[in-house]
Amino acid sequence: MPDGPVACRGFQLRQSGEIRLAPGKPWLAFRAEQWFDAAGLDFRWTAHARIARILPVTVVDAFEGGHGLLSVRIAGIVPMVRAQGPEVDRGEVLRALAEMPWRPTGFSSSSNAPQPAWSAPSPETLRATFDDGAMRCYVDLEVDAEGRVISAGAPDRPRGLGKTFVATPWRGTFAEYKTYDGLRVPTRAEVAWLLPDGPFTYFRGIVSDFRAVR
C-alpha cells in the first residue's frame, strides 16, 4: 500500500494463461479480465478460451451481491455449465479472500461492506476469516520478509465432482510483484487442488495490466 488512503471504486486486471479441467486433461490457453470491488469482496472474472482450438467458450467466475456464480457458455450464447448454491458461494468467497493481493484496499478497508476479520496464526501467516452469520470460512496467506503475499490457501474449498462437491485442500502461489499506480501486486499466479496423490495444478496466469478504477 502507498502512504495515505487509496480513493478508488475498484481494481481491474488483464490476464493470460492456461487452465485445465482435470488431471490428464490438456491445458487450454485463455485471456481474461477481472474486476474487484474496492469496498467488499465482490469480483467478476471473465475469460475466453477455445476447446480443441476451435470451439470458443466464455467462462464467468464471480461473487456478487452475496452469491457465487460459475458459468460456461459456448460462443458466449449456448449454456454449457451454470453452477450456483451454497457450495459455490463458499468457493467464491474463498477465492475472493485468497486474491486479496489484487485488492490492496482489502487489507485496510473501513467500509461497511462485509470484510474479513484478520488474525495472525504465526509470524509468517495472516488469516482472513469471513463470517456473515450463514457462512464461516478462512484463508491463510503466507507473507515473506518484504510484506508480499507469496501463497494463499484453504483446507476445505468445495471442488466440483460431477453433480456433487467435495471439500478439498486448495492453494495458490503468487510471484513477480510489480508496482502499478503506486500499488505493488503480483503478476504471476498458480493454483492447485491438494489431492491425496499429489497437487493438481489447474491454473497458471500472468497479469499484463493492473489499475485502480477511480
Outline the structure in words.
- This protein is mostly beta strands.
- Helices cover 6% and strands 62% of the residues.
- A 13-stranded antiparallel sheet has the order 6-5-4-3-2-1-13-12-11-10-9-8-7, covered by helices on one side.
- The longest helix has 13 residues, at 86-98.
Percent of residues in beta strands? over 45%
Mean pLDDT: 93
The CATH architecture designation is Clam
Number of strands: 13
| Largest beta sheet: strand ordering | 6-5-4-3-2-1-13-12-11-10-9-8-7
Number of helices: 1
What's the domain count?
A: 1
* Name of the top-level CATH class: Mainly Beta
Oligomeric state of this protein: single chain
What's the order of the H and E elements? EEEEEEHEEEEEEE
Helical coverage, percent range: under 10%
Morphology call: globular
Radius of gyration: 17 Å
Structural class: mainly beta
Tell me the CATH topology: outer membrane lipoprotein receptor (LolB), chain A
End-to-end CA span: 16 Å
Can you summarize the main beta sheet?
13 strands, antiparallel
Q: What are the segments in which pLDDT stays under 50 over at least 5 consecutive residues?
A: none
